TrEMBL record:
One of its GO terms (biological process) is glycolytic process. Pfam families: Metalloenzyme (PF01676), PhosphMutase (PF10143). Catalyzes the interconversion of 2-phosphoglycerate and 3-phosphoglycerate. Pathway: Carbohydrate degradation. This is 2,3-bisphosphoglycerate-independent phosphoglycerate mutase. It catalyses: (2R)-2-phosphoglycerate = (2R)-3-phosphoglycerate. The lineage of its organism: Bacteria, Bacillati, Cyanobacteriota, Cyanophyceae, Oscillatoriophycideae. Its EC number is 5.4.2.12. The keyword Kinase does not apply. The keyword Isomerase applies.
Amino acid sequence: MDITTVWEDLAWEQGGKIVYLILDGLGGLPDPEQGGTELQVAHTPHLDQLAQSSSCGLLEMVGPGITPGSGPGHLTLFGYDPLQYRIGRGVLAALGIGFDLKPGDIAARVNFATLDSAGKVCDRRAGRIATDDNQQICQRIREQVNLAVDYYFETVSEHRAVLVLRGTGLRGEIQDTDPQQTGRSPLPPKAQHPEAEQTAAHVGAFLEQVQRILNHEESANTILLRGFEQYQPLPSLVDRFKLRGICLADYPMYRGVSRLIGMDVPPPPGGLQGRFEGLKHHYGADYDFYFLHVKQSDSRGEDSDFEAKVAAIEAFDQLLPIALSLNPEVLVVASDHSTPATMGQHSWHPVPVLIHSPYVRADPVKHFDEFACLQGSLGQRPGLDLMGLALAHAGRLKKYGA
């Protein structure tokens, strides 16, 4: 049985508020030269104090050995089984910038990237080009590329953009062209289903024209596509769990996943301080569920910058009292996946979590990190469990059975 359907049956509109503070890519691995993981090294007095009056544990986001993308990781946190709701990053990116996707549209996430003289990818992010430069390049592409179907090519942020195809007979089963590592050539947009051949041909024609346009660019001289998906709306948090939600995030993809499940998504707050101030501003009668997203912990992990990831965690800790001052019935600190700086990429390692509520069984955990949390009362459990626990601690689930 899918436990989330039981939560749906038991959910009611009464109960307390739930605040999710999600540090993207929070989990790490010990660095011998640094003396531990990023969380162990970081100075986090507020997180540590909060852990001492909370239930702590580790979450395995998708399954043993599976490295989650940010989309599946966040869907898991919100109570959507990522093995059932498989959403491509392209759809999330399009929704994240407010693009008006229609059912049946095909969306793909785009990275501007750098090819060397041999045609191999030497930088998958084109030096994280400025968003202004991205917008200028996107404009040139829109002006010069012609396809047999309608298409939209829009800036997301920095080196990221989104491609949307709209027309009849389109399918989303297209192989990523992003090889996911440097030193390799981009992959062809191969159809992974016979009925997707026509769509793959449209993508191939798009890439061929774009490559001619970008050949003379110094850094952003190619594009890589991944996360092809055909858009279909999902049931909302209100429909499933009677939660009116709001998203406080700057980065488009996380705004997209929030919009996908029916949260309100106000304009980007602008910076971490702005997100916490936005949480305080919006906290009230209009919402039951508050999602605040922290991106820098993931970005710095992907950059293999241990010290910068530590700094991002410490910056979050300094602002944590703003959330604590609201005194929500349930406060969750968690992550969507691990991004150890020692690896420079997402990993399969479980992530630390704490649940703070008047009804928790506080455990002996004194420090919020991967190893201490394993000794907590939540133990190691599937990430999908988190929403059910949050609903229960907020008094938002009726009794099961007589």
